[in-house]
Specification:
Low-confidence stretches: 1-20, 410-415
Radius of gyration: 20 Å
CATH topology: TIM Barrel
Distance between the termini: 38 Å
CATH superfamily: Metal-dependent hydrolases
Strand content: 5-15%
InterPro entries: Metal_Hydrolase (IPR032466), Pept_M19 (IPR008257)
Largest sheet: 6 strands, parallel
Organism: Sphingobium olei
Helix content: 40-55%
Number of strands: 10
Pfam families: Peptidase_M19 (PF01244)
Number of domains: 1
Keywords: Signal
Structural class: alpha/beta
Signal peptide: 1-21
Number of helices: 15
Length: 415
């Protein structure tokens, strides 16, 4: 399993790409429609880039040079209005010290997101309610909702969630690659459940999410956690970046029965573009060994200088030259998951959360510049403009509005 210490996706230009893998040709008409839509991605790991030495969200970068996938110029080119910018924290030890370190890291990452907005109010705006998205987009600015991936930084104090809510967080997951104090992960190395779903503390966390008006996110958590969320949550559940087991049977994906249960409770699955979850990939042991060594260097130098980062990027490019990934998921693989979900639950319960800057990206859709291809593919598949608008933002905003309504009915204080 590749962690999120890696510098995003691989170098796709090192091997041939077929015309089919490139995705559909986007006509001028489809591109103009795409630019008119309000487009949101529900899982942007781009906040990790904000703290890289010498990197700026204002500048156009290249997926084939520094491996990042989202910045302001590329968002404009690809017609991405914004999304949910994630506070991601790697899973660490379930100890007081581990909780403290991860809490401090998460708070600082949240402040990095807020600082990005404050530094350029002409191009970015913080959004805290569903109704904020349309006017921000109409003003030509990028929409910045905030989310938490992995609730581990909350330690054993669910009341700390209010601090993140006040910061702007409106979506939160429970676990990540391993079980934690709140929930079972779908990919824990033990391959055995710890709680059989949510822990007692996880159920308390869910209550606090419902009280505050934070959307529960079941991505990365086990199927049993999703069952608990659907049974216990007073508002709809979101899968911010997941796929379909019917297309590829991976623990990170969900089966059709869970898809239908999610939709029956008003929830939405946001389609992931993480290649290892879209199809079975051929092993590349030499590359894997070299990448693990590189990630080890990155962990050891968490506060690296610009020079050190440049050296690591050079090593990454050398790995790509010596051990290219010749078997990667394609745009067609991504669309296979999306079209299957649409077939099972319809356009009211499907959205997009590609996992940009966190491992997402496929052949034919390497960064956000390629997003108009999704709109073109959906139109080609027979979905209407209204359907496509729901998929791009209407559905996730409906779930957020439902969480807000739940907060208001409980009398919780609004921000």
């Amino acid at each position: 399993m590749r962690g999120k210490y890696m510098v995003s996706v691989a170098l796709a230009a090192l091997f041939p790409m077929t015309a089919q893998a490139q995705g559909p040709v986007v006509s001028k008409k489809d591109y103009q429609l795409h630019q008119r839509l309000v487009t949101l991605d529900s899982h942007l790991d781009t906040p990790a880039s904000l703290d890289l030495p010498g990197w700026s969200i204002e500048d156009e970068h290249g997926v084939h040079s520094d491996y990042t996938q989202v910045d302001l110029p590329r968002m404009k080119k690809g017609g991405l209005d914004g999304g949910f910018w994630a506070i991601y924290t790697p899973q660490g030890p379930l100890t007081i010290e581990g909780f403290r370190k991860s809490r401090d890291f998460a708070l600082l990452r949240g402040m990095s997101i807020r600082s990005m907005v404050a530094a350029d109010p002409d191009n970015f705006a913080l959004a805290t309610e569903a109704k904020d998205a349309a006017p921000i987009a109409a003003a030509g600015k990028r929409i910045v909702y905030m989310s938490i991936e992995n609730a581990y930084p909350l330690g054993e104090d669910v009341s700390l969630l209010k601090t993140f809510y006040d910061m702007g967080v409106r979506v939160s997951g429970f676990a990540h690659f391993a079980h934690n104090q709140f929930a079972d992960s779908s990919t824990d190395p033990s391959k055995k459940p710890r709680y059989g779903g949510l822990s007692p503390l996880g159920k308390e966390l869910l209550k606090e999410m419902n009280r505050l008006g934070i959307v529960p996110d079941a991505s990365h958590s086990s199927d049993q956690v999703l069952d608990d969320l659907l049974a216990l949550s007073t508002t709809p559940v979101l899968l911010t970046h997941s796929g379909c087991k019917a297309i590829y049977h991976h623990p990170r994906n969900i089966d059709d029965d869970h898809l239908k249960a999610l939709a029956a409770k008003g929830g939405v699955i946001q389609m992931n573009a993480y290649g290892g979850y879209l199809k079975a990939l051929k092993p590349n042991p030499e590359r894997q060994k070299a990448m693990q060594a590189l990630m080890g260097q990155m962990r050891e130098d968490a506060k690296m200088s610009a020079e050190a980062r440049a050296a690591l990027l050079a090593k990454r490019q050398e790995i790509d030259r010596l051990y290219p990934e010749t078997d990667r998921a394609t745009f067609d693989d991504f669309m296979a998951h999306m079209l299957h979900a649409l077939k099972v639950v319809g356009p009211d319960h499907v959205g997009i959360g590609a996992d940009w800057d966190g491992g997402g990206g496929v052949v034919g859709m390497e960064d956000v510049v390629d997003l108009p291809k999704i709109t073109a593919a959906l139109l080609k598949a027979g979905y209407s403009e209204a359907d496509v608008q729901k998929i791009w933002s209407g559905n996730v905003l409906r779930v957020l509005a439902a969480a807000e309504a739940g907060r208001e009915t409980k009398g919780a204080a609004a921000p």
